[in-house]
Design goal:
By secondary structure, the protein is an alpha/beta fold. The chain is 40% helix and 21% strand. β9 (223-227), α8 (230-242) and β10 (251-254) form a beta-alpha-beta unit.
């Protein structure tokens, strides 16, 4: 028999079911994951690789993390910092996501970190290296599965100094990631007695490199250090070779220069040395399994971005398992991640107290279509986390 009160009772039951900590017989509500990534522009391929990696890990867990199925929400952030606050708020206020995952661009990620801090929303950064995210903006509920801009730059500063280079020119996009990558490089390079004779830059995501390449030719440094990524990196590496500089002034970079880009760069990238927390030919069983699964799922070779997306999902899974799906338990979620060893395809890593990976930075050389790992440039390198108070 139905009464007029039936809808009310059903409503109450639905509310009970929706609560993540509902009785064992209830299906917990889906976990709302908000992916805020670039799907257009110079970083479009990077956003897709991150999402692919993230979804691969979730699929390997039978579609659930911490016992909860996932409901997906997506925003194309266009790598545009001026739209980032609105985009993040759409996911938080309109879609009510439980966790934000993003982004690639450091300026966008800093805006996301601000929104995450103001709203208390969990944030996992699956690429953007903005030092501030695990520095002055650090928080109990903000995590990074990737790197800080300082890390690959610092490792390369040591490598280039050891190679005997004394006078170096840097060239990058004028924004947080480029500036901080160069700063990390400079810190290590100068400590070893090297000198940066000139910092060159152009606005993000510009690719009009000709005048700057002419300047490099006339400055005649021992070598060049660079940060570019995605579509811009493809064009830079090709232009550098086409300008005839490759043979006379060796080009080095943070590994984004040649990751996910080699097919498009072709012979122009041959032999380049870069530093990064991932590489091809790592020869670790965990990486081999990951690469096979990724190729099978997407018919594409994975790159560092795919790994970072995969590990962002792993980190979310570790935190959620510790709180049995109740993502509101932030202190317990953070405690679980702070003591975890994350079984990454890059090699297992832990999170420092600022929630940035403490990880090996590999030295890689482009051989054919591979970033071949030829050594470890810096073992278990931790970002200094300057300005983080937690
Ligand atoms: C960044 O903006 O932090 C950034 C973008 C692309 C990369 C690496 C870092 O490949």
């Amino acid at each position: 028999m139905t009464t007029r009160r039936t809808p009310l009772i059903l409503g109450a039951l639905a509310a009970a079911f929706a609560f993540a900590g509902a009785p064992a017989w209830a299906q917990p509500a889906k976990l709302k994951v908000g992916l805020m990534l670039p799907y257009t522009g110079t970083f479009a391929a990077l956003g897709t690789a991150i999402e692919n990696g993230f979804r691969l890990y979730v699929a390997e867990q039978g579609g659930k993390l911490g016992g909860r199925e996932i409901e997906w929400f997506k925003v194309d952030d266009e790598s545009d910092p001026s739209k980032a606050t609105d985009n993040a708020n759409k996911l938080i206020k309109r879609d009510n996501v439980d966790v934000l995952v993003g982004s690639v661009h450091s300026g966008v990620a800093m805006a996301m970190a601000r929104v995450a801090r103001d709203s208390g929303t969990m944030l996992i950064v699956p690429n953007a290296g903005a030092d501030a995210v695990t520095g002055p903006m650090c928080a109990q509920h903000i995590f990074r599965s990737s790197f800080s801009n300082w890390q690959p730059g610092y490792a390369m500063g040591e490598v280039m100094a050891k190679k005997g280079h004394k006078k170096v020119v840097t060239i990058t996009w004028k924004y947080a990631a480029g500036d901080e990558s160069v700063k990390g490089f400079r810190e290590a390079f100068e400590k070893q007695g090297g000198q940066v004779v000139k910092d060159l830059s152009l606005p993000f995501p510009g690719v009009e490199f000709q005048a700057l390449l002419t300047e490099i030719a006339s400055l005649k440094p021992d070598a060049v250090y660079t940060f570019f990524a995605g579509g811009g990196a493809v064009k830079f590496v090709k232009d550098y070779a086409a300008a005839g500089l490759k043979a006379s002034i060796p080009l080095y970079g943070a590994g984004f220069l040649t990751d996910g880009t080699l097919q498009a760069q072709g012979a122009a990238a041959d032999g380049l040395l870069t530093t990064l927390h991932y590489g091809d030919s790592l020869d670790k069983p965990r990486d081999k399994d990951f690469r096979l699964a990724y190729v099978k799922a997407y018919k594409l070779q994975p790159d560092v971005y795919a790994v970072q997306g995969y590990d962002a999902a792993q980190m979310l899974g570790i935190g959620l398992a510790a709180v049995k799906g109740d993502i509101g338990k932030k202190a317990e979620f953070a405690a679980a991640l702070e003591k975890a060893r994350i079984d990454s395809p890059r090699g297992a890593f832990s999170l420092g107290k600022t929630h940035n990976p403490v990880q090996d930075i590999y030295l890689r050389q482009v051989v054919g279509q591979e970033n071949k790992v030829i050594g470890v440039a810096s073992k278990a390198l931790a970002d200094p986390g300057r300005g983080c108070r937690m």
